[in-house]
Specification:
The complex is a heterodimer of chains A (about 140) and B (about 170). Chain A has about 140 residues and is an all-alpha fold. In chain A, about 70% of the residues lie in helices and about 0% in strands. Chain A has helices spanning about 1-15, 25-30, 45-50, 50-70, 75-90, 95-100, 115-144. In chain B, helix 1 (about 1-25) crosses helix 5 (about 105-130), helix 2 packs antiparallel against helix 8 (about 150-160) and helix 4 (about 65-100) packs antiparallel against helix 5 (about 105-130). Classes of the chains: A mainly alpha (about 140), B mainly alpha (about 170).
Chain lengths: ~140, ~170
């Protein structure tokens, strides 16, 4: 079973995550495979190629790995991660900035088993990074 | 000279007993000792005061963001310190119970553990008070001392878990 979920994790990495640019976009994708009612991960393609159990474990491990890589990143790095994500959203970037300021939808990407303070650190960094990007954009618009 | 030494030792011992008494009473209710998920890794605490972040915010952000950053980091630091104290308290209480049932108690080891626990508790309480009274700058200046809880938490955790609890179980 260990090699099975290891293979499933590699498969997820190679076929899917490598096609998604940016760590935050990858994290949002993996988190979106989780059923918010039950906390269980579902991915039909992975489950078909391996097994439901292997797919679920692979998604959980990937989710935790991606989250760990971002939650304790520095502020400068968090700003860069967020900017990279917003760049890919093109016209929606402004809407996302506006929406996330009032509705912290990014909070749902937190893994279930992650320590409470790691989650708090992630949310705090994103909140500050959002403000920094907003301030940067306002300054750019003012000078332009 | 001997009297001075004896008085000092008695005072230190008294302080330790007082600290342990206060520590066990403070910080809220107890939950099971094997709750591994209670504490975020010490790296989180270190990250909260990382100079790169503070320098980046000071250099690139306006006063509104700087104030928010300082507020949020202070809140998280106080929370980590509180959780660290609670986690160590749970272990200390479990350790004490196991010590009561153990026949192979080594007083010197127990004294050392009590001293480490007291020092950890005094340090985390002092840091919490400093951060809560907006003395984050002082904490960052004294980082060599202030970062000690992050280093101590792992060692203390291991000592409390391994030095007595397994013997009592055997």
């Amino acid at each position: 079973m260990t090699s099975s979920h290891g293979d499933a994790e590699r498969d997820l990495e190679q076929r899917t995550l490598s096609q998604i640019r940016g760590r935050l976009a990858q994290l949002i994708y993996v988190a979106s495979t989780r059923d918010y009612r039950t906390g269980k991960y579902q991915h039909d393609g992975l489950a078909w190629r391996f097994s439901e159990q292997a797919a679920e474990t692979a998604l959980l491990k990937s989710h935790e790995r991606l989250f760990d890589g971002i939650c304790c990143a520095g502020i400068e790095e968090t700003v860069a991660i967020l900017e990279e994500y917003l760049e890919q959203q093109e016209h929606e970037a402004r809407e996302i900035l506006k929406t996330w300021k009032h509705l912290p939808a990014y909070a749902v990407v937190v893994p279930l088993q992650s320590p409470h303070l790691c989650n708090e650190m992630f949310l705090s960094n994103i909140r500050i990074a959002l403000q920094i990007i907003e301030e940067k954009r306002a300054a750019k618009a003012g000078s332009g | 000279m001997m009297t001075m030494f004896a008085v000092s030792a008695a005072l230190v011992l008294l302080l330790m007993v007082l600290v342990i008494y206060l520590a066990v009473r403070a910080d809220g209710p107890l939950s099971p000792v094997n709750d591994e998920d209670v504490l975020a890794p010490p790296e989180v605490f270190v990250r909260l005061f990382a100079s790169q972040d503070w320098q980046y915010v000071a250099k690139n952000c306006g006063p509104r963001i700087r104030a928010r950053f300082e507020r949020e980091r202070s809140r998280l630091a106080i929370e980590w310190l509180r959780e660290a104290r609670l986690a160590m308290k749970l272990l200390w209480v479990a350790h004490r119970k196991a010590a009561g049932a153990s026949t192979g108690l080594v007083p010197a080891t127990e004294m050392k553990l009590a001293a480490k626990f007291s020092l950890f508790w005094i340090l985390t309480m002092t840091l919490s008070m400093l951060v809560a009274s907006n003395q984050v700058l002082a904490v960052r200046r004294l980082w060599r001392i202030a970062s000690a809880p992050a280093h101590m938490v792992g060692a203390l955790n291991e000592s409390l878990r391994t030095q007595l609890i397994p013997q009592a179980v055997q």
